[in-house]
Amino acid sequence: MEKLRYEQAFWIVSQQNLLNESVDPNWRQANYACCRALIVEAVEALEFYDWKWWAKTETDYFQMQLELVDVLCFAISFYIKQHPGELRAIAESLALESNPDLQVCRYQRKSVKLVDCDIPRLLDIVIGYASMRCIRLPLLERLFLLSGLISWEEIILRYRQKYALLSIAKLMVVEWVDITNFGHLLRILTICKAW
């Protein structure tokens, strides 16, 4: 995976800001718990990974990718709220922080080799950081890689697909009660080459 380029970062930041403004025009001033939402989405991503030793399940990488996109959405929202000002400066900061080749990170006063971490362990670390109101983009990049999204182009495509479906749902005044329905709809649209 190559580093996140400025143009890509700016597109993501701009789109997330637009999406948030469509929900609440004053979202930046509101006291929304972006890190809590990120934690919930990370746990949802874990549900699609076969980690339960007491119940054999299949890993659903596609659904996990959709949940990781949600994690990214709340991470970007957190960045925007924490760094008020010009979206271009936030995008520049994200592009500088991007480091998909990061080998080691500090977590709980220990050095953690990221190449030794599987998806559940990385999600644990992301959740731990988020609980301290801290986001580490290189950890998200590693998660995307392990989930099968091997480039920022693929991540952005998944983001665009999810954003488009949210827009369609909003126009249709549809409530998505179960995220699995969302994933099935995206699969159907992809198969039908509606994109």
Question: Remind me, CATH topology?
Answer: all-alpha NTP pyrophosphatase fold
Estimate nothing, just give the exact number of structural domains. 1
The rough form would be described as: globular
Structural class: mainly alpha
Fold and architecture overview:
The structure is a single chain. The longest helix is centred in the middle third of the chain and has 22 residues, at 61-82. Strands 1-2 form a two-stranded antiparallel sheet. Helix 2 (34-47) packs antiparallel against helix 3 (61-82), helix 2 packs antiparallel against helix 5 and helix 5 packs antiparallel against helix 6. The chain has a single domain, classed as all-alpha NTP pyrophosphatase fold (Orthogonal Bundle), CATH 1.10.4010. It has 195 residues and is mainly alpha-helical. The protein has 8 helices and 2 strands, in the order H-H-H-H-E-E-H-H-H-H.
Summary tags:
all-alpha NTP pyrophosphatase fold; mainly alpha; 4% strand; 2 strands; globular; 195 residues; two-stranded antiparallel sheet
Short note summarizing the structure:
With 195 residues, the chain is mainly alpha-helical.
Describe how the helices and strands are arranged.
Blueprint: H1 6-23, H2 34-47, H3 61-82, H4 87-97, E1 104-107, E2 110-113, H5 119-131, H6 137-147, H7 152-172, H8 179-191
Antiparallel strand pairs: 1-2
Helix pairs in contact: 1-3, 1-4, 2-3, 2-5, 3-6, 3-7, 5-6
